[in-house]
Amino acid sequence: MAGAFYPDDPGELQAIVDGxxxxxxxxxxxxxxxxxxxxxxxxxxxxxxxxxxxxQGREYDSIVVLxxxxxxxxxxxxxxxxxxxxxxxxxxxxxxxxxxxxxxxARALDRSGIALSDPRSGRGAVCASPYRPAVMGKLRxxx
Length: 143
Hints:
single chain; alpha/beta; Protocatechuate 4,5-dioxygenase, Chain B; two-stranded parallel sheet
């Protein structure tokens, strides 16, 4: 996604993310859920910045990023990246492997399908990841 949905230059990307965040206001209530667009930053970056601004300075153990499949019509299973990290020009976004394994186990008990997935296949997580260092510090992700 770097170089297509957002700049691949770390300095340019940081300036864009910081700009979107600084032009946004934080609401007084702590969110339990965010619905964030994930088109290219030129189209939806300001809206994403407003959403992620709501997390800044607030405490969360982990976040879960949900997104649609752009590769499989009618996907009947859930895809999850079980460990490692998403890589962005602003650094790594570590996966909460313990939470990912709990999600995988819960889905197995439910007899629903699950596929281990490359995180690059889901644009939502990849487009959201550059905001993570600015608003969530060392927070881990399952997605």
